[in-house]
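Running this now, will post back.
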Amino acid sequence: MKGPKALLALADGTVFEGVGFGARGERAGEVVFNTSITGYQEIYSDPSYKGQIVTLTYTQIGNVGTNPEDFESEGFQVEGVIVREYFDAPSNFRSTASLSKALEKRGIVGIQGLDTRKLVRHIRDVGAQMGVLSTEDLDPASLVQKAKKAPGLVGRDLVKEVTCRERYAFEEGTWTLGKGYEKPSGNRYHAVAMDFGIKRNILRNLVDSGFKVTVVPATARAEEILKLSPDGIFLSNGPGDPEGLPYAAETVASLLGKKPIFGICLGHQILALSMGARTYKLKFGHRGGNHPVKDLSTGKIEISSQNHGFAVDLDSMKETPLELTHINLNDRTSEGMRHKDLPVFSVQYHPEASPGPHDSRYLFERFAKMVEKHK
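Update: finished.
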């Protein structure tokens, strides 16, 4: 392993030594882990990871390089990356740059060579916590103090750092080998998507399901959204604590009953808050492509892709017009809900399958059918 010495220090005083790759520098963030085997480029470029240093549990990362088509946003969104072994000689016909070069170009610090199994077990035992990753300051005591002083995610509004600044139209469908991203014809419906840190493949799946999509900033007010004459409203994924976004919950509350609504991940949590439910921080979150979810209406099990550190409190839903539709089979947490009377539903997991399985893509078609019924 070639590269500069690098240190990862956690707020509880735990320090790991490794070798740096990507950019040189120092970054702070909440240290979390993702259990996916593939899709590191999509993971690193997911805006939901803003404010976090991501550990990948798969042993070798970098073997397929990077390419312009697989970014889920304008660039990498993570604060730093942690891997067991970085592979700097990618072998993939689509690769245009190594992962290290892509990280360096975007100022993201990486570390390899540390015991990622030990780190993940530590996070599982004590919970996700703030950490500092550095190739510059190599004093463990100094880095631990920086980690202790770093602001956590609870109560922070990280959405303002990743949302779009102005509304825009999105017309690109999903990717096909040999054709790339195509533009489907014959859009039947108009969806306005509130951008809390939206992934491009969510938008592509909406387009494939028959939607003309207009994306608006997270701060857009209800009256602005309704002036665009949508047939349905989509609430996107995004980073951080939903309770740090009271303006978003207020807007969604004003939209209830006006148009059909579909939410994913942070959008699911904001929707719950808009109707009086509560959210809480999970010990170490759900991040990976192999989480089992049960659809309570059909009894079917879906293997899902997930990325969230907060969840909707099930007990708090009892006093709301919401009912549980999906549940996580690992820890029995909320994975989906719907309004008892209105055309409103949401899921905590990611049905766009990028990266991850395809079990949940039916949810986009469910949204289209709901919009058709209430158009």
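The longest helix spans residues 362-374. More later if anyone needs it.
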